[in-house]
Amino acid sequence: MLELSGITAGYDPRRPVVRGVSLTIAPGRSVGLLGPSGCGKSTLARVAALLHRPDSGTVVVDGDPVRGARHRATREQRTAFGVVFQQPRLAADPRMRLTDLIAEPLRATGRRAEAAAAVAALAERVGLSGELLRRRPHEVSDGQLQRACLARALVLRPRWLICDEMTAMLDASTTAALVAVVEDYRAGSGAGLLAVGHDRVLLDRWCDETVHWDELRAEKSPSGV
Amino acid sequence: MSPATSGPARSGPATSGPARSAPVPSGPVPPGPVLSVQNLSVRFRMRGGRRIAAVTDASFELGPGECLALIGESGCGKSVLASALLGLLPGNARTDGRALLGDLDLLTAGERTLARTVRGRRIGLVPQSPSAHLTPVRTVRSQLEETVRELTGVRKAGLRAAAEAAAERAAFPATHLDRHPHQLSGGLAQRAATALALVGDAPLLLADEPTTGLDRELVDRTVDELRRHADAGRALLMITHDLAAARRIADRVAVMYAGRIVEISAAPAFFGEPGPRHPYARALLDALPERAFTPIPGVPPELGDLPPGCAFAARCTRASDRCGTLPATADGVACHHPEETSRA
Predict the structure, then answer these.
(1) Using CB atoms, which residue from A38, A140, A141 is nearest to B185?
(2) CB–CB of A152/A101 below 8 Å?
(3) What digits encode the pLDDT tens for the residues A116-171?
(4) In chain B, what are the domain boundaries?
(5) pLDDT of A182-216, one tens digit each?
(6) What is the pLDDT of residue B14?
(7) Among A112, A176, B71, B319, which one is least packed by beta carbons within 10 Å?
């Protein structure tokens, strides 16, 4: 269970972009969060992914309250999340080959030995061939780089996936392919999903349920609890 | 270089090779196209002698008041085509074919000609990422005034009014003229960039992924505005992977796959009945969440290692032995096994 309650967050304490929002996602469920540009949905996604400390409110992950964001969260909690961002170019270290990019979470958690096998398996899953894996980000297209970023998000086998506009930069076929990879992973692992976006047709098709930002602010907790 | 001409100055024109006299594509030719691209190819020479075939044999024409949407997967060569038209290819690129803007061949024109008479003046570029396109440390007003001064020769006295009029044409609110780019929403930044592109009153507008990252409402508004400028008599080439945006405003659709234009069709027939004729185009539409939402199996071939025949054959359900040879373009489709239903 991923429980966000009474979250107020932003970048200037006097003008929070998210005010008193609550959202609960049951294990294995997928929720699409819909809203216009600039409404604060990405900030909420960052809070949910433990990447941004809310000004107030609580985040509870599978029963354990979160005591800090980023490095202040416990490793066990941090690694429960896989995150995919909107712009793969800004989310990838330009100096790393795609192989290293995908393997980085394993290295960072001291599991370097598993890297080769894990990367090979995931690369095939997301549709990256051997030669592409040796390239650096500037040598591949946005779609190929986002495939690598998705593989990186899955490499630690997270219990929760946060996809913030994962497909906004991508063409229809790559979008369908990446969503299929996410759903395939969720079917095998039982992971929950928060997918943020502004395309209602896509989120309705992808997720168990879709909530609009406006409903979320008004209310009680949505989602398949 | 003024902001409207976009991008950093590159070293020298990247064109070479004799402009081969290409056969003009068959079919009725509208009187005086604004842009006529004939057998355009772009090759990149990489280290180790590798050659990347980014664009191969692209031909199309674009008339005044017409909107052509160029669609395809990321990495298929769409943006390289746009860079070729603007003479903004990097130094390791070689072009072949012709791209006639009036009687000027954009591929062989020198950097001086392109910088002084083409970019901003005869081709307006609506960029992919407006917030990256605008100068971050200057207000929109200052950038508009500079562009107006450079492109139209208006001097001090009339400059302020001319810049405000330019903002007005792209529906950019005068109240926001004194803001810096980071103070603008995505939609307003897009309008600011469009305003800059319109200053030179260019007959050809080139929009390279103008709606990436915008939400649906803003996408609709942005493309509607582009359409309005086409309706005012400009030719509009919109490069996009957003099929909904293309459907909304395009007169014709060109589908690009692995550097080749594999189908050019009228937009209503393409998006409605009878639908696309090339199997790739059909599969691309079927990937939409409102349709089958099934990805095209496999991945596009590497542009540095294209097969000798049809590049889509490896992913195509209709592929046969014939697909080992390159299909000629007939009736706007380059396929050995096009969808027949369309031949009404």
Answers:
(1) A38
(2) yes
(3) 999 999 999 999 988 889 999 998 888 899 999 999 999 999 999 999 999 988 88
(4) 32-63+72-110+244-344
(5) 999 999 999 999 999 988 999 999 999 999 998 88
(6) 41
(7) A112
- Chain B contact set for A180 (CB, 8 A): 295
Contact call for B214 and A37, based on CB within 8 A: yes
Residue B12's pLDDT band, with cuts at 50, 70 and 90, is very low
Q: Which CATH architecture has domain B32-63+72-110+244-344?
A: 3-Layer(aba) Sandwich (3.40)
| CB-CB under 8 Å, B287 with A86 | no
Chain A: residue nearest B282 by CA?
Answer: A173
Cα–Cα distance for residue pair A119/A151, rounded to 1 Å: 8
Distance from CA of B286 to the nearest CA of A (A): 8
Task: Output DSSP code: residue B302.
Answer: P
Q: Which of A15, A55, A13, A4 is nearest to A38 (CA)?
A: A15
pLDDT at residue B128, rounded to an integer: 81
Q: What angle, 0 to 180 degrees and rounded to 10, lies between the N-to-C axes of helices A115-126 and A98-108?
A: 130
Chain B residues closer than 8 Å to A196 by CB:
none
Q: Is B320 exposed, middle or buried, given 0-12, 13-18 or 19+ CB atoms closer than 10 A?
A: exposed
B21 conformational bin, left if phi > 0, alpha if psi -120 to 50, beta if neither? beta
